[in-house]
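[User]
If only I could read backbone structure tokens as easily as an amino acid sequence. I have put the entry right below:
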Amino acid sequence: MADKIKVIISDDQKAVKIPSGVRLLVRRCCNASLRLEQFEGSAEISVRFVDNDTIRELNRTHRNIDSETDVLSFPLGENGVYDVDPANGAYMLGDIVISVEKAVAQAEEYGHSLERELAFLTVHSMFHLLGYDHVNGGLEAVRMREREETVLTQLGLKRNGSYYLDEE
């Protein structure tokens, strides 16, 4: 069981007012993800709320993709090996960057609350920080989605429909 989880949250955007309770929700998402993975030791995660312009710039700089996206994950570990913060001995898992503008649009598109969308993006990114990937699809993508849904269900945020709209 994880000892102490430190989630550093910064709101570096002016486009959307962050609803009250979201910071606590983000912390709960991080904690629940680590609990499901039976993470041992203390951990630090940075979560940054940005606007579409900022995430587009980060996406271009780090992934050579010149468009905005909903969330970017910057893992600091590889194969379960993480840097340790010398000040407190915590494993530094990495950074989560969420476009709140994009989250608002997706919440509307999928017909659920902004809180549900921010929780999903946080949990999704947490699993990236923990080494999961979905880029190649297949079993790994399915396993990652199942774990995300397990955490969201534990937090009372069960999905109320599909993430994918029919293209017909």
Q: What stands out?
A: Confidence is low (pLDDT under 50) at residues 161-168. The helical segments are 22-36, 52-63, 100-110, 114-129, 138-154. The chain is about 40% helix and 20% strand. The domain at 2-154 is CATH 3.40.390.30 (Collagenase (Catalytic Domain)).
